[in-house]
Amino acid sequence: MESERYWYSAGGDYTFSVVGRFEKLKNNEGGFFFDVSDYEAIIEFYLDNNEVLQASEAADIALSQHPGSIPIRSKMVRVCIDRGMAPEALAIIRSLESLDPGDPEMTFMKGTALCMAGDTKRAMLLFNSLISDDMSEEDEDILLRVVSVFQDLNFYKEAIIYIRMLIDIDPNDYYIYHDYAFAHDKIGESERAIHYYNRFLEGDPFSDSAWYNLGVIYARKGYYSKALEAYEFALAVNPDNIFALYNKGNVLSNLELYERAAAVYMEYLESDPDNYEATIYLGECFEKRGLLDRAEQFFSEAVDLDPDLADGWFGLALVSYRRENYGRAMASLGRAISIDSHNSEYRHLLAKSYFAIGMVKEGVRSLIRLVDSDPFFDEAWVDLSLVIDEAGVAGRISTILRGVANIIGDVPGFNYIYSACLLAGGERPGALSALGRAIDSDPSLFYRFSHMFNEEMLDENMRDLINGL
User: pTM value?
Assistant: First the structure.
């Protein structure tokens, strides 16, 4: 019957039949012909099954046989959109608009194409024309489609506007709060995202993805205990959520619960035994607990997994340094630095290794190179302050540091050292000025440099600054 020819569902007998004939005939060298309605079914079948290239091929053949067909050209618009070809889609739409200017589907596709081209303002005008002034349940389908367009194209601020409309229509539809939370998270509004994920979970407490996303936000904001709870809920709902398991290990590590974190990483590695990062983090957990043999085991496994990544070599260097095997530590650091020459932690441990074996000049040079490339790496400045203090040269290097100050600018670690050296050289006004800049930048750092400031040399103004901390 004729009505069956318009049964376009992907599982319909008619659709399978016509698609099967099309695929068979197009591979033959002989000619073939299908009606417009047949081609509509074929193209729709491929699009519904995400076979965009096949849909494009079918549309091209259809247009060659039916060049004036409006339905086929309309299908070609969707093909262009699905292939990310916004200019081509808009060109076809312009040729069709005058034929049926009020077609809502064509209006929607034009809005979608404009979004793809980055013209969200014109797109919103078109989408808004499809929504009734007194929004009702009848508008839900188009609103959901509009939200999907903006989300797929990462226009989350625009998506939020239309999600809000859906909430206004039915505030008790808790499913929409998941998209609302996700969109707020994407634009950096974490607290709103947390609120709306919790609102969603009131309606669906068994959504492991929502618990997982909530955990990610909590962890990013440093709310590690709440993040841990969220990941544990996600795992209670879905024990196979290995992303939640991995992140649970990270949170436990951030909470310095290294024994529990190690157990979680071990469990994760049962599912993904070749995961480099998890192997490194497991090694770190053992290193933090002083279990150096186990730490070395997993850092070595990481190096075996990928010797061209630096973290494994650095882990081995840490283990050797803690064992006071400084030569071996420096050899591993050499491998790590050859891979990642800009990593400040690697260069800092190299400097400490030089100091440990009595190569003070090499250690100082390493620290100077480090602060030259990363002036805000505070640990290097602290180590330099100890070297200066131990050598008793603070009062003699203020002139050198004055030249450095003109180049380096307001770096708190440097300014604390500069202030102490100016004070040791009797230049109290300059010392006060440098100390003020250092404290303004990072007051908590003063106590790492307090050993350089001779209490008897401090004037009243400097004491006031320090006592105000």
Answer: 0.82
